[in-house]
Amino acid sequence: MPVGHVSRVRALYRRILLLHRVLPPDLKALGDQYVKDEFRRHKTVGSDEAERFLQEWEAYAAVLWQQANENRHNSTEKSCFGISLPEERLNDFRDEQIGQLQELMQEATKPNRQFSITESRKPKF
């Protein structure tokens, strides 16, 4: 892989993990794990699939950045993250991707998520 491609992938990966810091702790944990798994899974794909993969994750990062800024400016309202996925976009997915998306949706919408995250808090003096 060209050096430019590798640095682009690493920069995007770091950017997404940084953006996840604005998410609620349980969604951050879920999102971080999903990103790590997906980037690992796509290490050996061909150049066309790699380019599409990067474009989709860059679009995700842009939407998350925009939503984080909007949530910061509307601090009185409950934070909202995510977008609707139009049905026509689903037609472009492989069966494996549909299954992953279904699992992700189920995990993200569980009333009692499997992630039990407690933020370490330092006592304030």
UniProtKB/TrEMBL annotation:
Compositionally biased residues, Polar residues: 109-118
Keyword vocabulary terms for this entry: Chaperone, Mitochondrion, Transit peptide
Single Gene Ontology BP annotation: succinate metabolic process
Main location: mitochondrion
Chain spans, region Disordered: 104-125
GO cellular component: mitochondrial intermembrane space; mitochondrial matrix
Pfam family membership, one: Complex1_LYR_2
Subcellular location: Mitochondrion matrix
Superkingdom field: Eukaryota
Role: Plays an essential role in the assembly of succinate dehydrogenase (SDH), an enzyme complex (also referred to as respiratory complex II) that is a component of both the tricarboxylic acid (TCA) cycle and the mitochondrial electron transport chain, and which couples the oxidation of succinate to fumarate with the reduction of ubiquinone (coenzyme Q) to ubiquinol. Promotes maturation of the iron-sulfur protein subunit of the SDH catalytic dimer, protecting it from the deleterious effects of oxidants. May act together with SDHAF1.
Assembly, per entry: Interacts with the iron-sulfur protein subunit within the SDH catalytic dimer.
Stated family: Belongs to the complex I LYR family. SDHAF3 subfamily.
Protein name: Succinate dehydrogenase assembly factor 3
